[in-house]
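cron nightly-structures :: item 1 of 1
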Amino acid sequence: MALFSRRAKIKKEFDARFIRLLEETREDWHTAQAVEAHLDDYDLDAIAKRKTLESIHFYLYGEAKRRQVVYKRK
């Protein structure tokens, strides 16, 4: 039985790390959206950065679904 309790503890720890990473990427993505919205001209670097951060966030979101990570936004 000790193996299963250790496994649950490790899963809980890694789920917490994963949720923090998901929150950080979400914040970065929204910051990039705000920066792009405030630009006066068409800046390809800002658009590329936003799209990159968006794709990273949605990849992590899909991984969270696949891993069945329970996440309740604050």
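cron nightly-structures :: done
The helical segments are 2-38, 44-67.
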